[in-house]
Amino acid sequence: MEKKRFWIVLVIAILVVIIPILGKYLFPGLNKYILHVGTFMCIMTILSVGLHIFFGICGQINFGCNGFYACGGYIAALLMINLNLHYYIALPLAVIGTGIITVFVGLAVLRLRHWVLALGTAAFGFAVFITLRTVGVGFLGGDDGLFTSKLMVFGKKASPSFYYYFILAWTFISILGAYILENSRAGRAMKSIRADEIAAQVTGINIDHYVRMAFLISGMYAGLAGALYAQWNRGVSPDSFTPDIAMFVLVYVVVGGLGKLSGAIIGTFILVLLPELLIPLKEYELLIYAVIFFLVIRFMSKGIVGTVQDLLSRRRLVGMEAADQYSQG
Amino acid sequence: MEKALLLTFIGFGLGSIFGLVGLILVITFNATKVINLAVGEFVMIGALVSAILVKSAHLPLGWSILIIIAGAVVIGIFLNWFLVTPLLDRNVAGIMIIIGTYAGALIVSGSAGALTDFAFMGTPPILPLTSIKLWIFPIVPQYGLCILVTIGVVVAYWYFLNRTHVGWAFKATSINRDMCRLLGISTSRMIAMAFAMSAGIGAIAGLLIGPMSSVNASMGFPVMVNGFIASVLGGMGNPYAAVVGGWVVGILHVIIAGYFAPGYAQLAVFLLLIGILYVRPYGLFGVHED
Amino acid sequence: MKLLQVENISKSFGGLQALQSVNMDVEEGLITALIGPNGAGKTTLLNVINGLLDPDSGSIIMEGEDITDLPPHEVAMRRIARTFQILRGYQQQTVVENLMAGRHVNTRSGILACLCSLPLARAENKATEKAALEALDTFGLTPYADVPLPVLPHGTQRLVEITRALVSNPKLLLLDEPTSGLNPRESDVLLKALKSIKQKGVTTLLIEHNMRLVMDIADHVTVLNFGVKITEGTPDEISKNPAVIEAYLGRKFSAAAS
User: Has residue C29 been placed in a domain?
Assistant: First the structure.
């Protein structure tokens, strides 16, 4: 990473860690609220980064990430309730469990491409949502969902601060993982698949393998988000995993800038913050998202990060008379 | 046995509506090569406006129908001009346009909801909703009307495509848009025509479905989902297969709801879709073009 | 030594017989040109070699191994690299990223190794970057390292794509009309690049319409017409061959030549 970017990221990381600590003293009344929004933002970021891996890096479409999000949450809750497992054990098991489900779903849908894949994954997301509401109500809790017990940390009940820092740590790990992946051989292979499948194949890339892997990783990210949500929210219910959420995450990624990791993060940050700032308009949340999405793909098709980068680099490239050099031999 | 027959008939009726939605989806897909997720909103407009007109204006049925269809057509053309054509012209990637149309659908239903407060309304049926016996077969007249109207629309569409000059040009545009432009066919007019037809047919579907289910500003999306599944089952691009797909979806819906529980019906449809996509990714009648 | 053997390859698409019992060999270290009028089946043959198409019958033998049924990525792993007639560079990436992508066959760290940033993955990353920068240098592309591909002129993009194929040190390089779409100056640059490739001893199978280039650089020429090999030989031999002249220009000219 270039020097400048490294410092920006460091500053942001420090801010994100410090603000809630200072918050207790700077704005005492609001602190709980800030922690709540911040924690939710972290969970959504994990979802977005997961989608970024499948959509932004590998170029494949997943309209049903709410399904894997729900799997993570429900598996964690079920393990804790029925098997009495401690949360720290249920969490990784939920992620692995979601991964296994991802593999099976992948067998069914990953032979499709483009909008048919979108439809298949959307159907999965819908199917999960409906199943959670209507099937096995005794086991899955139906519309009311399941409730998890409080988490004890060092003898005391876990506080909102604890949840924030715990989930923030996982968010950092997720982002780091995505960053490492992007700049590795596997990441380059996935980017090649996005750019041109035929060219990727003749450069030795096994498309099927990498797409399945990207799907698996993306699904496990969603599972992680779900399992974190399950304990933080002290329960899971179908309303938290509606198909709308799959659409929201997609909007976060696209508005932020498709193909850029920073885009997914910034998009999530802005679009999770926005409804909080416009509280009176909350019932029009969906409508506002729709308008923003439409405006972005109409006028800023590369998203926020993409458009900003384009504007900045235009100054660099305008002076490229060197480009002429080759035409003149 | 009688229950099975009755459910099948109802399924045909409901499926006819899904088939109509699938049909308009295929019409716009063939014209723009983009799946327009906003077509469900035409149905919603048809149903919602008819409910409002019935409640307040007390116009005779014939006039109401004409007004609703005309209104839907206007909205359809407007949507095309405002939402779809700008995206198409700017060469936005296909999947983004599709999501864009979804955003458009949300905008339409959100606006309608804002105007009506997302209230639920009812419409009286055009024909009776009780089952009567035709010979040995139980039928429900309202659903029978759906089936008949759908068949009528399909025949009219076939006639338009194959027996009129404009229809020929329209068909050609869906096969090779650029070539048609070179031949002097105004493709933008063809696209507008596609939207007008879709809106009109969608409004008719809305008028038919109103009495059969609750009417509200958000009803467009579930209808669109089933219509979409219908067209994919049949094979995207084939308008007649979409109608057949609609019948399949409708019958499955009603049978599962009738023999198990309503909650399982939609789930069954999704599982059917995933199953069929696994075996035949291009639909039952679809052909792989690559 | 015969690096690649094409044995009796036939391929039809519906009613069209694109290739009919084509036999040819590619000798190691030489540049073999594959020429013929449009529609002769040249690109189809390349696609069969690559694994992008399955032949109806016949086999492709690479260094003694039958690679006919292998999928494209496996063929690439046998160190066969390919460029296309239409530009297939990665448009969303910069030049150096394109080249680094080309090193895929030379590295083997799997996804888990990459995610956990194991030493193997990190070492390979560094080596990939180094190889890419060296390749940039060889063809004078260093000023464009961080430039996104779509900004560059057609000829430069073509050069980047060929460099991407070369950066993997292939045993066999398949080039499909590399001068297509290039102006004469860009073609000269390409010719220089091909000459340096030849000097390095990379075996090349080249589809070309630019006869000046073919005469200049090819060691061996195979001529296809309507899916059938009509002759082969040195550039000099085939330029005088009546069947070849007839294929390109028609019977009148072939009669005039003989």
Answer: yes
Q: Name the residue of chain B whose CA is nearest to A109's CA.
A: B278
Q: Which residues have CB under 8 Å from B17's CB, separation 6+?
A: B43, B146, B150, B205, B208, B209, B212, B223, B246, B250
User: In this structure, what CATH number is given to the domain that contains residue C247?
Assistant: 3.40.50.300
Question: Which residue from C258, C227, C247 is spatially nearest to C55, judged by alpha carbons?
Answer: C227
CA distance A58 to A218: 11
Q: How far is C174 from chain A (nearest CA, A)?
A: 11
Chain B residue at shortest CA distance from A302: B92
- Residue C167 in any domain: the answer is yes
**Cross-strand pairs, C80:** C172
- Residue B64 structure tokens: 């109401």
| Structural domain contains residue A180 | yes
ipTM beyond 0.95?
Answer: no
CA angle A192, A194, A195 (to 5 degrees): 65
pTM for this one?
Answer: 0.87
Helix axes B262-279, B239-259, angle to 10 degrees: 140
- Neighbouring CB atoms inside 10 A of C65's CB total 10
Q: How many domains does chain C have?
A: 1
**Chains touching C (3+ CB pairs < 8 Å):** A
* Domain membership of residue A7 as a residue range: 3-315
A187 contacts C90? CB cut-off 8 A: no
C124 within some domain = no
Expressed as residue numbers, the domain containing C248 is 2-93+158-257
Backbone angles phi, psi at C174, to 5 degrees: -105, 120
A in contact with B (at least 3 C-beta pairs within 8 A): yes
Can you say how many angstroms the Cα of residue A255 is from the centroid of all Cα atoms in its chain?
13
CA A3 – CA A9 distance, rounded (Å): 10
Is residue C155 within 8 A of residue C140, CB to CB? The reply is no
Task: Establish if A45 belongs to a structural domain.
Answer: yes
Token output for B75:
């909205």
Residue B213 CB burial class (10 angstroms; 0-12, 13-18, ≥19)? middle
Per-residue pLDDT of chain C (258 residues; tens, 9 = 90+): 888 999 999 999 888 888 989 999 999 989 999 998 888 889 999 999 999 999 999 999 999 899 999 999 999 999 999 999 888 989 888 999 999 999 999 988 888 888 888 888 889 999 999 999 998 888 888 888 888 888 888 888 998 999 999 999 899 999 999 988 888 888 888 888 888 888 888 899 999 888 888 888 899 999 988 888 888 888 888 888 888 877 776 666 555 555
Q: What is the CATH number of the domain that holds A141?
A: 1.10.3470
Distance CA C62, CA C184 (A): 35
Closest CA in chain A for residue C102: A203
DSSP 8-state secondary structure symbol assigned to residue C187: H
A139 in reach of chain B (CB within 8 A): no
Q: Are residues B11 and B251 in contact, defined by beta-carbon separation less than 8 angstroms?
A: yes
Q: In CATH, what class is B2-279?
A: mainly alpha
- C147 domain-assigned: no
CB atoms within 10 A of CB B115: 12
CA distance C211 to chain A (A): 20
Q: How many independent structural domains does chain A possess?
A: 1
- Please state, in angstroms and rounded to a whole number, the distance separating the CA atoms of residues A54 and A250: 11
DSSP structure class, residue A53:
I
Q: Distances from the Cα of B248 to the Cαs of A202, B40, B202, B263, in angstroms?
A: 42, 19, 19, 18
Among partner residues C97, C107, C115, which is closest to A181 by beta-carbon distance? Answer: C115
* Chain C residues 175-214 with CB within 8 Å of chain A: 183, 185-186, 188-189
Q: Is C202 helix (H, G, I), strand (E, B) or coil?
A: coil
- DSSP letters, C88-121, are ---TTSBHHHHHHHHGGGG----HHHHHTT-HHH
**Rounded CA separation C47/C57 (Å):** 14
Question: Which 3 state secondary structure label does DSSP give A217?
Answer: helix
Longest dimension (CA), chain A: 76
